[in-house]
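For reproducibility, we list the full input for the flavin mononucleotide complex.
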Amino acid sequence: MSLVEGSSEAAAREVLDPDVWHYVSRGAGGNVSVGEAAGAWRTYRFRPRVLQDVRRVETDLELFGTWRTPIGIAPSAFHQLYTPAGELATAAAAFACGAPMVLSSRTTTRLEDVAAVIQGPWWFQVYVMRDPSITAATVRRARDAGASALVLTGDTPYVGYVPPTGTARPLPLTDELALANVAQHLPHEGVADIWELIDQDAGITVDTIEWLAKESGLPVIVKGILRGDEAIRCVEAGAGGIWVSNHGGRQLDGALPTARALPEVVAAVEGQVPVVVDGGIRSGTDALAALSLGASAVFLGRPVIWGLATDGQAGAERVVDEVTAQLRHAMGLAGATSLAQLDPSLVA
Amino acid sequence: MSLVEGSSEAAAREVLDPDVWHYVSRGAGGNVSVGEAAGAWRTYRFRPRVLQDVRRVETDLELFGTWRTPIGIAPSAFHQLYTPAGELATAAAAFACGAPMVLSSRTTTRLEDVAAVIQGPWWFQVYVMRDPSITAATVRRARDAGASALVLTGDTPYVGYVPPTGTARPLPLTDELALANVAQHLPHEGVADIWELIDQDAGITVDTIEWLAKESGLPVIVKGILRGDEAIRCVEAGAGGIWVSNHGGRQLDGALPTARALPEVVAAVEGQVPVVVDGGIRSGTDALAALSLGASAVFLGRPVIWGLATDGQAGAERVVDEVTAQLRHAMGLAGATSLAQLDPSLVA
Amino acid sequence: MSLVEGSSEAAAREVLDPDVWHYVSRGAGGNVSVGEAAGAWRTYRFRPRVLQDVRRVETDLELFGTWRTPIGIAPSAFHQLYTPAGELATAAAAFACGAPMVLSSRTTTRLEDVAAVIQGPWWFQVYVMRDPSITAATVRRARDAGASALVLTGDTPYVGYVPPTGTARPLPLTDELALANVAQHLPHEGVADIWELIDQDAGITVDTIEWLAKESGLPVIVKGILRGDEAIRCVEAGAGGIWVSNHGGRQLDGALPTARALPEVVAAVEGQVPVVVDGGIRSGTDALAALSLGASAVFLGRPVIWGLATDGQAGAERVVDEVTAQLRHAMGLAGATSLAQLDPSLVA
Amino acid sequence: MSLVEGSSEAAAREVLDPDVWHYVSRGAGGNVSVGEAAGAWRTYRFRPRVLQDVRRVETDLELFGTWRTPIGIAPSAFHQLYTPAGELATAAAAFACGAPMVLSSRTTTRLEDVAAVIQGPWWFQVYVMRDPSITAATVRRARDAGASALVLTGDTPYVGYVPPTGTARPLPLTDELALANVAQHLPHEGVADIWELIDQDAGITVDTIEWLAKESGLPVIVKGILRGDEAIRCVEAGAGGIWVSNHGGRQLDGALPTARALPEVVAAVEGQVPVVVDGGIRSGTDALAALSLGASAVFLGRPVIWGLATDGQAGAERVVDEVTAQLRHAMGLAGATSLAQLDPSLVA
Ligand SMILES: Cc1cc2nc3c(=O)[nH]c(=O)nc-3n(C[C@H](O)[C@H](O)[C@H](O)COP(=O)(O)O)c2cc1C
Ligand SMILES: Cc1cc2nc3c(=O)[nH]c(=O)nc-3n(C[C@H](O)[C@H](O)[C@H](O)COP(=O)(O)O)c2cc1C
Ligand SMILES: Cc1cc2nc3c(=O)[nH]c(=O)nc-3n(C[C@H](O)[C@H](O)[C@H](O)COP(=O)(O)O)c2cc1C
Ligand SMILES: Cc1cc2nc3c(=O)[nH]c(=O)nc-3n(C[C@H](O)[C@H](O)[C@H](O)COP(=O)(O)O)c2cc1C
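The corresponding predicted structure, in tokenized form, follows.
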């Protein structure tokens, strides 16, 4: 089952600047992980229940907020690369769909402006910057602007290696846009160091979880987990949730597909905190597999970008709505009427 | 081993209207299940017995009737789409071959007319409609017309999702034809609701099994089972047989191939009721695998339609006869002279 | 590792009549088994021993005769289809190579004439014909002509199904040639029945093993075994050897590749009698895998025919010699200097 | 992740004489092992740790010498085929990179001259020649010239079989070059026997390990091990290290990929001696897999030759440096800051 035609990968490729397209679609290294992510979900098969009353199928969800769908929007950087309204479009789409949205640390819009278009909770993704005071200030701003959870990206001590292609040029992004969210925290002088200040701090450890929780008063979900023991280590360090991800294949190339990693993480966590997942989810049946295997929600990265690129807010909405509709349809055919009824026995 | 040349998939494609062809050949969603069904049987290999007296190989079968072959005709809708004589041609072919035929609830001919061309038993497939009195009346008619079993399709609370293709048009089917079997039960007025009345009832449960048995006095085989626990649940609710099927890949896309599901279901049922199977059976060796793994009979869906399309009754007959001949030939080479001698040790 | 270039499959295809080529290369049914036979050996990998003294590597073998190589010639019908000297060329090649040869029941030369070109033992392949007296007479003649073992083909109660191709014509073979070996046993009158008399008897059982042993005084190897329990059944019925084969994929299509079946059969037989194997062996490393897994010898079917077709006796010799040379070379690199040193630990 | 563009396989192919190219790139037999080596590493997936302080990632290594990287240079013959400075270029590159280099027994430069360009240890690869006194003299010279370990190639009692291609010609190598390292030990007369004298001795056994250790006073690493029991046999015979290799697929074709063999060998050796590995390592993530699975170092064969061919010493340096950089990057993303922190749990 593929996404709505008008917001497809092919449609996005046609409208995007080739360098932007390459930035969005590429993974890291040899593109092993990015290339296999979606296929890994399709290795699962369904074992439906039959003869259940499925006249009403609900996808409602409580997860650091109340949502109408477990199909969320993963954090991704710099949405004005895709549509003029940038993150405003994304946020409006998320709100319209009743979907959880995670705003990236790297946005082309101030988070307060983004928050303003959502009449309810949202989550804020955190990169701890080399100057931790900037991060501290930012997460406080996020809390004040209505964020109900933080998502600490744990798989990015530094940016994943991308082999030189010969033809790639820098992203068409002004400093002003690239720095929109953090500009207010930067020193007015000594500009030579700016990029260094806001670069990821490769030295952060699990202690960061407590620190963020304390600074913001918000639950901290750790993103980028692919093993059970790491999930437990984060939970013991205070994590309020675990996000199984290999960063869309953009960090350690060859990292396990999330479709393979999810069951181990769910088993290790034993329900102490919710587990969510992203990576290669492209349809309602992909989502059905993930949710049946124990994810509380799934997140779309590139598909939402495709939607933004092809049709701004409406495009992003179509993507989330369509995957939600596919999920609801598939749940009924599998004999389930609520997310609570999904369990691993539905998957082989 | 492929089907007889003159009734092949390619031959049918040539003669059928493209929309009808698409309707027949497509699955649901991303066509995962429809695409892998036949190949899943070919993953099995045979472990033949040798030096057995195989001068006479029989394929006789008792299964809610007496048949000369375990190669049956699965229920499919609207046969006048394929050949002018519609279900009359199919029924005549089944009778000529000594094969079990299942008449769909959705036919282009009144069931009584179809029954008239068969001098013996047949099975009737049931969709419970939103107005249950129509279904009740229909199954009583089927019993009166000689049906020896009901096949309750359990995997279709509603019709499987088919992504819009842009070019697909409605089937070339008049209301009169589409309603042939149920017209007599429809109210003469309030036509606006008709399609709603006869649509599947998404609310039916296993209680439907007892209800149908009581209304008709016939054994009820539940079709669309892919897991052992679901088979048991149906048996406990009164099912007289289990039909392993994913509806030709037309319902929940990504549902387990029946070739993979069959052994689990057979093991769970432990011989309490017969188990039959359909999906991707295209040759006598596919049938040999299924029967060895514990199916009492196998059913052909699309191949019979190809036969009807290319040559009406004769075409359908050629398909069933040829697969039966291939099965008989293969049984002998495997050292078996009757269906009772087939066992799982023949398959690896 | 492929065969010598001048005697390759491609070279044979060029010189042979297309109908003969089709007869040789095709399998039965959907060509599943014939298509996967060679590849199945290539799924094995070697675990060589190192630092062994391998200055002398021997391939000598005692197996119902004394041979210089375990690379034998499998029985195949009608060699005058491939080279004017027919089976005389094959036999001379076998003798020159010191290789065991199995003469088919279906030859274009009288077995006495074939035997005359071999100064030593050979094996005779048996199809039990509907008139058993013909078979009885033939095996006695074989014994008298120096055969040291019989090979009873157990997988052919009748000839495997070949789907009609539309273009295939009968083999270019006169009755005289086709009947060369049995003509002397046929009644002079009632010619209409001849082909029926010499057709395989589909009614033979394991009792045939004792009968043949008694008629000929020779050990009986049963050919066509793919399962351990069947091997044991034959051994208990008096078999002197077991030949793992699926008849080059020409009988039950989809029968297990011999590369997969061999280990089970070897394990079941527990050394009570020797086990040999054929099917898809195309190089010395294929042979190394088979011999390591417990085969006492391996047999080439089609490759010898390619050799005959391209260059008569010399071509057949090149094939057997080259595979033997490859085997000897590979044995040394695996750290083995005799067939006795090959064991399953060499294979993964 | 592929190698640096300027030193790639494709770049080397363009500059090398076709016969030399074929000599470098080919494997033995049917090229099964050479063809699958690299892909076998890519079947592994990573299970990274997150939220570790990875500001400093070190690749330092003690292993019969002190090195800055575990990416070593495997022994290969005749480097003047690739670059005019031959082994001098290779040695200088190894020293510049801080990488372990193994000098082949078959060089186009006297080992003393090679050793002179390295200000530190290096390893010497040993083929025991039919005249053992030549080998004895050579290993003593190696020790005197600063070698810190011997690498006894155990998988080459004779050179692996290469099927005739019809077009291949002898390597463009004068006798003088081919004999550079051993000329001083050859008798001045009786030249007809020279190649025989220096050919591998197919009769050597594990006793050679002790003999070499005694002659040279150096630890002896046995190269060409693919099974645990063979590793133990060598360790018990005095080996100071085990080198898992199938000789780049150039000896027994179909020998196990080293990526599959490594875990068994590491498990068997139980840390008694270090284990290293080569074969198909083409990137830092390939190296990460090998090192995580228990290798102390990994060695590059052909990639260094590609570097030499495209740009002499600088090309070889780029290859080793780039793979080291990729490894260091990947280690950090996997949460490890030193080789000691790599363990099998990082790999699935
Ligand atoms: C263009 C792009 C930018 C991204 N930026 C971020 C980011 O700023 N922070 C983050 O935690 N993840 C980021 N991600 C990773 C996504 O959150 C998510 O893990 C990934 O895209 C999911 O895989 P999918 O694209 O296959 O759905 C980015 C992904 C893409 C494709
Ligand atoms: C065109 C078409 C119409 C079908 N209609 C029905 C139906 O009315 N009722 C039903 O239970 N199954 C229906 N099926 C499913 C078949 O009974 C059967 O499960 C399936 O076709 C078997 O797979 P095969 O086509 O690969 O042999 C239909 C299948 C096709 C292809
Ligand atoms: C053209 C042809 C004719 C054959 N005729 C006989 C035969 O007469 N008797 C018999 O036992 N097997 C016969 N076989 C089977 C071979 O003995 C052998 O099992 C098979 O060819 C081995 O597989 P390979 O061709 O892949 O090496 C024949 C095979 C071929 C290809
Ligand atoms: C052209 C060539 C020459 C080689 N010569 C030697 C040699 O002289 N001694 C030796 O032990 N291994 C030799 N090898 C094998 C390498 O040491 C190493 O095992 C192999 O190349 C590793 O695989 P890779 O090429 O895939 O990295 C040679 C390999 C190649 C490609």
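The mean pLDDT of chain A is 95. The pocket of flavin mononucleotide (ligand 3) is lined by residues C 23-24, 37, 74-77, 104, 106, 125, 153, 223, 245, 247-248, 250, 278-281, 300-302 (CB under 6 Å). Both points were considered when choosing residues for closer inspection.
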